[in-house]
Structure prediction request, 303 residues.
Amino acid sequence: MPPIAATLASTSGPLALTAGYIADVTDLFDVAHSRPHRPEEPVGERRRYRTVWISDVHLGTRGCNADMLIDFLDHVDSETMYLVGDIVDGWQLKKRFYWPAAHNDVIWRLMKRARRGTRMIYIPGNHDEMFRQFAGLDFGGIKIRRKAIHETADGRRLLVLHGDEFDAITLSHRWLAHVGDAAYSALMTVNRAVSAVRRQFGMPYWSLSKHAKAKVKNAVAFISRFEEIVAEAAGSRGVDGVVCGHIHTAEMRNIAGVAYYNDGDWVEGCNALVEHFDGTMEILNWGDEIARRDVPAVTALAA
Prediction:
């Protein structure tokens, strides 16, 4: 292992990143042979799905909702799992290295899932584009691809990709994308403060940034246009639908005969897209799932 990678792996986690490049990509997967800081939560019966899609986790940032994702991974299993980009945030890690134990635990759970036999496909996004150079290779049972075609249980073909390929700001004005990223990070700082206050009062998870984005007319127009462009591109490729991430807005709708699915994120919405064994698709909001799970315990305590 290179000296830089060894130092970072021993002090800050498995991700060795210097000057924006991975010193040794295998460091990221060595964590599979370590012990998690937070052991897997024993649950009576884990939910099972045919397929699970998650994206925009942004490990390496303070905005990442790693604890909620760990809870999700401890309660849900699937035959196939797609990691649809921006799992690791290389943009922020280049500015400041941040890698708490919970982020290690997310990687550990993903790697263990692959070792248990789950078919894992990782499609890097724009924030973890440093992994795109490894497209076509497998690491620790995780297949790295630029895009994929998924066939549902009811025979539909879905194009799976991150979605930044259709973001004009990211493609044409990279500097503007970084400015927007900085502004978004500032909003997430406020979002964390609001979440901390809500937890103090026993209130369920709620995202200020998600609420603000829904109220801003230009943001709503951008999201709508993005969805239409992605669906149109998928239709031109002869598939029945498309699954993407990138814009941190979970959605499931039909656009001009093409099924459009966005699996959301684990910063604001904490969403996952799942396929049931009959091919039915569903978006899970894990904050709501935790709130429903906690209701019986709260009721019993009150009684």
